[in-house]
Amino acid sequence: MNSETVVGFNENSEKKPVYFDLNTMPWETLTDEHVGATFKDLKMVLDERTGMRVNLSVYPRGYYKPRHIHSCAHGIYVISGTLKTDEGEFGPGAFVWYPEGTVMSHGATDREECVFLYIQDKAGELTYLD
Predict the structure, then answer these.
(1) CA–CA separation, 115 vs 38, rounded Å?
(2) Per-residue DSSP letters for the chain?
(3) Which residues are CB-neighbours of 100 under 8 A, at least 6 positions away?
């Protein structure tokens, strides 16, 4: 099992599967200054050429990112809890895809944390609109 924090890929990377033991990988606590709160992130895959990434993330109960956009497309697959968005609430098994430039708000409900897989198609920035 691979227990590195991030597995980077580039054109010189060996072409073989990479396995992760998420139970042994270190979580990173990230502070969102705009929101004034923290969330947890477990970085798994980063394609150094394109910026495509896959992370496992946890929004704590009540954490919510107000209106913002990303300069990349990205998706959120809900593993546990509920993802609260400006379009509704989505529970385990839901997958929400945001095309590049979509205006959105999302986070966890006040009832429980939200654990999700985050997939980003290329390098991108988050810009808050409020």
Answers:
(1) 14
(2) -B--S-EEE-TTS--S---B-TTTSPPEEEEETTTTEEEEEEEEEEETTT--EEEEEEEPTT-EEEEEEESS-EEEEEEES-EEETTEEE-TT-EEEE-TT--EEEEE-SSS-EEEEEEESS---EEE--
(3) 70, 71, 72, 73, 121, 124
Q: Which two tokens stand for residue 56?
A: 């496992």
Q: Which two tokens stand for residue 126?
A: 């988050």
Q: What is the pLDDT of residues 29-60, one digit of tens each?
A: 999 999 999 999 999 988 888 999 999 999 99
The full length of the chain comes to: 130
Residues 6+ apart with CB under 8 A from 52: 45, 46, 119, 120, 121, 122
* Cα separation, 30 vs 130, whole angstroms: 20
Residue 79's nearest CA partner among 87, 88, 90 is 90
Q: Name the nearest CA neighbour of 38 among 10, 64, 20.
A: 64
Cβ(55)–Cβ(118) below 8 Å = yes
pLDDT single digits (tens) 6-15: 556 556 666 7
